[in-house]
């Protein structure tokens, strides 16, 4: 069993944000406690089933996301304790929102084995927070960052740009405010309007609420400048970290490592051999001889129903190339050489050449003495030159075009 990453989903929030289409339910406070008790009881049972099957033996990273895991309070601490009886993760992240992160929770989580808290800050402008339906304010967010740091945990802050009413000046104030609080990691996302959300419906009536893509691109640029100047290096499309504080769990996703999903809506991705070992834990999902990889999504609380997607060797190779394009490092020559065993070299070279031609990527030699000017896609793919195909500034801003080029190889 080679699975090294575990994701746990906690689909509860105090109130639904206006832009959110994640799986999360909100309850009246009097019903929330019973709903959380029932849900966590099922999580613990499922966790034990994974553990007894040996599926957690090699887990190195754990990520509890949501929803709002911090809403679960002591239940979350107990979950962390139980996970750490089955494995010894080197990185253990819990997502939290400022309004439900009590002064005591980070310390209790740290004692239970958690190493990192990812906070939904989004913006430090109270008007913008209200416009997107968040229920915390800027002071609460800054206090939460300090509480997490005081507990000795790493803290990551999620920020969003393109919010209703946001300006270049307010975005800069948010960045400056967050940098002054000195988190270890910052993620920056452009707001997207998802069909069916309240904000989507509001924007249908008032187009001033629609995110302006040029403004968002400018915000992403400003964020990159401010964050890199402050010592945070951009290692993925949306992610910045102080050296040594990159999110190992997310890197596992972006480098094609297998992961287990636990909880309703949680996704897992297993190599076919690992899936065959664990098939009994996924009722109703059968093995398929031609599948190289299986992606599974738990559909209910009790883990009795799953959606399964089967990827062929070629689809898995294309997916790995596409995911590598998310990383600043880009597509390494080893990954390209592996892909060339599955995807015809001529197709692979053509996708690389197209990315180069569109200005979305560039060859960066593996060694400082390398002569990038002489590198060709065919040479790298054939192993005659060592270089990585790294996204350019345009490829970073226009990632979807780059991702599509490589996913198209599937
Ligand atoms: S806190 Fe996160 S998961 Fe919950 S409603 Fe808001 S955006 Fe969605």
* Mean pLDDT metric: 95
Named at the architecture level, the CATH assignment of the largest domain is Alpha-Beta Barrel
Give the end-to-end Cα distance, rounded to a whole number of Å.
26 Å
Structural class: alpha/beta
CATH class type of the largest domain:
Alpha Beta
- CATH fold node name of the largest domain: TIM Barrel
Strand content: 15-25%
The distinct bound ligands, ions and cofactors come out as: iron/sulfur cluster
Low-confidence stretches are: none
* Number of spatially distinct domains: 2
Number of strands: 14
Helices and strands, in N-to-C order? EHEHEHEHHEHEHHEEHEEHEEHHHEHEHH
CATH superfamily of the largest domain: Aldolase class I
Q: How does the overall form come out from the CA principal axes?
A: globular
Task: Characterise this structure.
The structure is a single chain. The chain is globular and about 65 Å long. Strands 7-8-6-5-4-3-2-1-9 form a nine-stranded mixed beta sheet, with helices on both faces. A three-stranded antiparallel beta sheet has the order 10-11-12. Strand 1 (about 5-10), helix 1 and strand 2 (about 60-65) form a beta-alpha-beta unit. Helices cover about 40% and strands about 20% of the residues. It folds into two domains: about 5-250, Aldolase class I (TIM Barrel), CATH 3.20.20.70; about 330-405, no CATH class. It has about 400 residues and is α/β, with parallel strands linked by helices. The structure holds iron/sulfur cluster. Iron/sulfur cluster (SF4) binds near residues 13, 16 and 66.
